[in-house]
Amino acid sequence: MAQKKYSRAALGLFFAFYLLAFLLTEFAVNDRAALLYGPASVNGVYSAGLCCTALGYLAFPLFRRLVQGERARLLTLTLFSLLFVGSIIPTLLAPRPFFLPCAFLSLLCAGYIGGMAHYFLAINLQNSRCTGRVVGLTIAGESLLQFFIQSWLETAPLLIASVVICVAAIFFIVRFPPGDWVLDNPLPYDDGGGPPKRKLLIAGVTVCLISLITSLDDTIAVFLHAEGSVDLTGVVRLSYAGAVLLFGCLADIKKRAYLPFMTACVLAGSTLMFAFLDSPDTYSVNAVLLYILSASGVIYLTVAFLDLAPRTAHPEFWAGMGRVLRSFSVAATAVPFIRLYDAVGHAAMMAVAFAATVAVLVLFFVDGQFSPAQGESKAQARREDGLAGFAEKYGLTPRETDVLSASLYNDKAPKEIAYDLQISERIVQRYFNSIYEKTGTQGRVSLTLLYSGYLRGEKN
After folding, report:
1. How far apart are CA 300 and CA 212, in angstroms?
2. Which domains does the chain have, with CATH numbers?
3. Integer-rounded Cα radius of gyration of the chain
4. Counting Cβ atoms within 10 Å, is residue 436 exposed (0-12), middle (13-18) or buried (19+)?
5. Cα three-residue angle 441-446-452, rounded to 5 degrees
6. C-alpha span between 105 and 458 (Å, rounded)
7. What integer pLDDT is reported at residue 458 of this predicted model?
C-alpha cells in the first residue's frame, strides 16, 4: 500500500509540476506580448502558442518511437528540459526581436513534457477508480500554487526560478519513477477489448465542441486581461481550483457513469456567461463562470483520453490527444471569435454556444453515455473475474496483472516470463517487486497463498 500511495503522489506531483511550468509560461508569454506589441496582438500570439504546445504534445510519441532505450530517452528529456529553461529566460527578459522565437520554443518544449505527463498518468492509472480525483486534486493544487506565485512573486526572475524548479522536479521523478516506467517499454496491453474507433471519434469531436464553446468566451477574456479590464490570475482563479476538484470527484462516481451528464449540465448553463460581458462591472462574474466551464472541459478531455489511451495500440499518442485537440481548436477560433464579438456582440456568441451544446448532447445520447447502469455493469463484470478482482483490489496495472498471471497459472521463472513477453528479465523483476509492494507479500510463495485466500473468500 505504501508503494501505491507513493505512486499516486508521484503521479500527481509530476502532473502538477508540468501544469504549473506550462501555465506560468503561457500567461507570461501573453502578458509580455501585450507589453511589446499591444493588447490587440495577444490573441494572435496566444493562438500561435497553442499550436506550438500541440506540436510539442505530438513530438513526444514521435520521439518515443524513434528513440529507444532508457538512457537515450532520458537524454531526449534532458534536451527538451534544457531548451525549455534556456528559452524561458529570453522570453521574459530579452529584447523584442528574440521574444517570439523563444516564446514559441518554450511552449513547444512544455508540450513535449506535457505529452510525457499524460502518458505517465495513462499507463499508471489504468482501470483505476480514482483517476478523476487524482487529476482534479492535482490541477486544484497547481491552481492554488499558481495563484500564489502570480499574486505575490510576479517578477521575471522569480517566474524563471519557478519554471526551473518545476522542470528539475519533473526530471527527478522521471529518473526515479514509481509504478510503470515512463522510459521503459511496458508490456503491451491487449485484452481483446480495446476501444472501438467510434469511442475515440466521439471523444475527439466532443473535446473539439467543448473547446469551441470555451474559446468563444476565453478569447474575449484573454483580450480583457491583456488590456487590464479583468485579472484572470487573481482571486477569480480560485473558482477554477474548487470547480476542477469537484468535477474530478464526480467523474469517479460509478466509473465515469455521470461524467457525460455532468459535462452536459455545465455546457447547458455556459450560455449564461456571455450576458456578463456587457459591463466592466460584471467581467469578474463572467471570468468565474468561464473557469467553471473550463474546469468541466479539462476534466472531461483529460479523463476520457486517459481511460481510452492504454487500450489503444499507441497510448503515448492518445494519452494527451484531448490537449492536442483543445489547443488546435482554440487556436483556430481565437482570432475569428474576437472579431465576431466586436462585430455583433454576445448574442451571436450565445447562439453558437447553444448549437455546440446541442451537438454534444446528441453525441452523448447516440453513444448511450447517459446510462449510469452501463458503467455499473462493467465494474460488476470485472469484480466477477478472480484475477481482475484481485488486481483491482491491490491496484495492479494490466502489465503487472499479466506478469502475475504468468506466475500463478504457468509457474514460470522470471527468465521464461521475460522471453514469452519479449521484455528484459530486469523489467520482469521490477514488475514483481512492484506487485510485492502493493500486496504486502515477500515473494512468489506468499503471493500465491494470498491469491488463493482471495479466491476462497470470493467463493464464500
Report:
1. 14
2. 2-179+195-374 (1.20.1250.20), 385-459 (1.10.10.10)
3. 23
4. middle
5. 115
6. 55
7. 56
For residue 153, what is the DSSP state? -
pTM of the model: 0.76
- Residue 253 zone, left/alpha/beta (φ > 0; ψ -120 to 50; rest): beta
SS3 230: coil
The average pLDDT across 365-389 equals 57
Distances (CA, A) of 343 to 153, 346, 349: 38, 10, 11
173, 178, 183, 184: CA torsion to nearest 10: 170
State the pLDDT at residue 321. Answer: 93
* DSSP sequence for 200-225: HHHHHHHHHHHHHHHHHHHHHHHHHH
Other Cβ atoms closer than 10 A to 235:
12
Which of 426, 362, 431, 372 shows the shortest CA–CA distance to 399? 431
HSE, side-chain direction, 13 A CA sphere, residue 39: 13
- Other Cβ atoms within 10 Å of 408 Cβ, number: 17
Tell me which residue has cell 468566451.
217
Measure the CA–CA gap between 274 and 216, rounded to whole angstroms.
9
Distance CA 99, CA 251 (A): 40
Q: Taken in order 63, 64, 66, 72, is the CA torsion positive or negative? A: positive
pLDDT, tens digit, 9 for 90 and up, residues 41-60: 887 888 899 999 999 999 99
Q: Are 92 and 28 in contact (CB under 8 A)?
A: yes
Nearest-5° Cα angle at 264, 293 to 343: 55
Per residue in 177-234, pLDDT (tens digit) is 665 556 766 655 544 445 567 788 888 898 898 888 887 777 777 777 776 777 666 6
Q: Which ranges of 227-320 does DSSP label H, i.e. alpha helix? A: 237-251, 259-270, 283-308, 315-318
Distances (CA, A) of 280 to 28, 233, 291, 360: 24, 17, 17, 31
Cα–Cα distance measured from residue 401 to residue 435, given in angstroms and rounded to the nearest whole number: 9
Half-sphere exposure (Cβ direction) of 27: Cα atoms closer than 13 Å = 24
* SS3 of the chain: helix, strand, coil, percent, to 5: 80, 0, 20
With beta carbons less than 8 A apart as the criterion, state whether 333 and 210 touch: no
Cite the DSSP H helix spans in 67-155.
Answer: 70-93, 96-124, 131-152
